[in-house]
């Protein structure tokens, strides 16, 4: 996890523009560098480093003697870099996983390069020999990337939007900043004056398709067919592999643990893999909640069962409310459910950074979207409609859960790893017949739970624990976090303000006082940037007015049972 930043064709003083890059210093607390591009006085790279792999030669932009005309700035982890290096007999100059991008590009061009990368990444690749700039981002947008481009060819790229919003350019008083789409790469021509022109934007991977790099990985052969036992065996093989490949780091590994199915499976599998790899330190697991929180109780149970070194972080409503401003600044969004869920994750990341030496943090993000874990999937009209919705959620992860997971951890210099969004695991899961993936017997994620039933990874009551949203599980059922927030906001936003909400915020007009309050904070930090969020996250197929699972009738009946 690092912070990347680059400008091409800047007509303002670079030493002034470079101040913007310092807005993302939290992403790389270990070192930083600015570097001008030879022959282009108005082009430069900025890089903030979190040293996770190759502490000696890991600074960027990466340049190697063999390709003096290539400059690479990337944020991410390429898990198959060693396998590809051996396969194609590339001569490495560093131990940095990203060096593989330079060799693959030289061998086969950008399309083949990006399709071969098994990992999470956002990159800027400059080829001064062929006068090209390439931007690319992983399938689900696990690593963030934003860009701003003007009609006269000024291009600015950054890991977070906050590193771009203050930039100046002569032809425009307000630089339009937008997220770079996941699963895409862009080709741009570099002109002699340092400015660029977009040539094409290409979608290189759909989450349903098996990735090209599957041809070269070391996963044992999967069994064909969709018999239940066959599918369960394949899922176990792929999930094990997803966790194992993510052990790639020189820093200590920890794991977020809410006590729900997803984080518990990740923690249990991770601990098993660390033992097999003979890692010498105990796995630290981290849970957060208020007193009487069901998450804390469940997480404690899992930690005792798997034998991790468990940390519990308690917070009260005042601390949560006080964090809202810095959370919304870090997130760069005002989406209601994202903000609610981010407070706990932000506070626990702060604790991890301050009190431990765990830096690489595993988490269960992506599972709900992939395995139809949200409670509203019980109301899906058909397996096919549920499949459509699952794919839509995965496509939009970069606006919601993946955004939350990245920004709340990166704000404290931590790197997040999410095995459920592994290319092989997710594409296989999405290839299964739609009727296999829907909730069964009133239980969501039935197939995933069944898959691990006989593995002895988790206690049965955790394996079959019903879905609880992270923003709900951190508080007691009697007093949900969303209710605490709504009660507080009631005194901050009055009816007169709500009456003029549509005039003040014509785009994505907030319908509730809570939404209005978050939007106000967002506009204070990022005025006029509301279009970064295309729409609010909200359950489907039910007349929901609030994104909390605890407001749904299915949850209420389960709580009574």
UniProtKB/TrEMBL annotation:
Enzyme Commission (EC) number: 6.3.5.4
UniProt entry keywords in alphabetical sequence: Amino-acid biosynthesis, Asparagine biosynthesis, ATP-binding, Glutamine amidotransferase, Ligase, Nucleotide-binding
Positions of L-glutamine binding: 97
Gene: Asns
Superkingdom assignment: Eukaryota
Domain Glutamine amidotransferase type-2: 2-191
UniProt GO cellular component terms: cytosol
Record field: catalytic activity: L-aspartate + L-glutamine + ATP + H2O = L-asparagine + L-glutamate + AMP + diphosphate + H(+)
Biological or metabolic pathway of the protein: Amino-acid biosynthesis; L-asparagine biosynthesis; L-asparagine from L-aspartate (L-Gln route): step 1/1
GO molecular function, one term: asparagine synthase (glutamine-hydrolyzing) activity
Site (Important for beta-aspartyl-AMP intermediate formation): 365
Enzyme class: ligase
Catalytic-site annotation from UniProt: 2
GO BP terms, alphabetized: asparagine biosynthetic process
SUPFAM superfamilies, sorted: Adenine nucleotide alpha hydrolases-like (SSF52402), N-terminal nucleophile aminohydrolases (Ntn hydrolases) (SSF56235)
One Pfam short name: Asn_synthase
Residues that bind ATP: 256, 288, 363-364
CDD domains referenced in this protein's UniProt entry, alphabetically: Asn_synthase_B_C, AsnB
Name this polypeptide is given: Asparagine synthetase [glutamine-hydrolyzing]
């Amino acid at each position: 996890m690092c912070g990347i930043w680059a400008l091409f064709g800047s007509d303002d003083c670079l030493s002034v523009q470079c101040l913007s890059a310092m807005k993302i210093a939290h992403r790389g607390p270990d070192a930083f560098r600015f570097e001008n591009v030879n022959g282009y006085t108005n082009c430069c790279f900025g890089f903030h480093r979190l040293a996770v792999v190759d502490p000696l030669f890991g600074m960027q932009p990466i340049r190697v003697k063999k390709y003096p005309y290539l400059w690479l700035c990337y944020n991410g982890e390429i898990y198959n870099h060693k396998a590809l290096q051996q396969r194609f007999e590339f001569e490495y100059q560093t131990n940095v996983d990203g060096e593989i991008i330079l060799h693959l590009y030289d061998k086969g061009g950008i399309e083949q390069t990006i399709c071969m990368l098994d990992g999470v990444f956002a990159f800027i690749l400059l080829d001064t020999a062929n006068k090209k700039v390439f931007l690319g981002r992983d399938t689900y947008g696990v690593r963030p990337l934003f860009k701003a481009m003007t009609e006269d060819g000024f291009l600015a790229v950054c890991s977070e939007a906050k590193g771009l919003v203050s930039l100046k350019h002569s032809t425009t008083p307000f630089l339009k900043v937008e997220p770079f789409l996941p699963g895409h790469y862009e080709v741009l021509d570099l002109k002699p004056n340092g400015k660029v022109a977009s040539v094409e934007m290409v979608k290189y991977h759909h989450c349903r398709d098996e990735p090209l790099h599957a041809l070269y990985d070391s996963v044992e052969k999967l069994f064909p067919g969709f018999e239940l036992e066959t599918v369960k065996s394949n899922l176990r093989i792929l999930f094990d592999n997803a966790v194992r490949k993510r052990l790639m780091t020189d820093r200590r590994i920890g794991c977020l643990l809410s006590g729900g199915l997803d984080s518990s499976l990740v923690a249990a599998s991770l601990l098993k893999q660390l033992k097999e790899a003979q890692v010498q330190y105990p796995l630290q697991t981290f849970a957060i909640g208020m007193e009487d929180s069901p998450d804390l109780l469940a997480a404690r149970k899992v930690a005792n069962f798997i034998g991790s070194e468990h940390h519990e972080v308690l917070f009260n409503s005042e601390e949560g409310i006080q964090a809202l401003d810095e959370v919304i600044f870090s997130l760069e969004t005002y989406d209601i459910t994202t903000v609610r869920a981010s407070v706990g994750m932000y506070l626990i990341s702060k604790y991890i950074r301050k009190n431990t030496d765990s830096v690489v943090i595993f988490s269960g993000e992506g599972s709900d979207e992939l395995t139809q874990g949200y409670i509203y999937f019980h109301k899906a009209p058909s397996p096919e409609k549920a499949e459509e919705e699952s794919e839509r959620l995965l496509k939009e992860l970069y606006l919601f859960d993946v955004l939350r997971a990245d920004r709340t951890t990166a704000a404290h210099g931590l790197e997040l790893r999410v095995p459920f969004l592994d290319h092989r695991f997710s594409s296989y899961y999405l290839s299964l017949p739609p009727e296999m993936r829907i909730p069964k017997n009133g239980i969501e994620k039935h197939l995933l739970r069944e898959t691990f039933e006989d593995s002895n990874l988790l206690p049965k009551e955790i394996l079959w624990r019903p879905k609880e949203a992270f923003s709900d599980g951190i508080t007691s059922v009697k007093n949900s976090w969303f209710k605490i927030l709504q009660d507080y906001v009631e005194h901050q936003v009055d009816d007169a303000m709500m009456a003029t909400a549509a005039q003040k915020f014509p785009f994505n007009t907030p319908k509730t006082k809570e939404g209005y309050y978050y939007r106000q904070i967002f506009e204070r930090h990022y005025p006029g940037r509301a279009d970064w969020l295309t729409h609010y996250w909200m359950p489907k197929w039910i007349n929901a007015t609030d994104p909390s699972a605890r407001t749904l009738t299915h949850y209420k009946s389960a709580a009574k049972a």
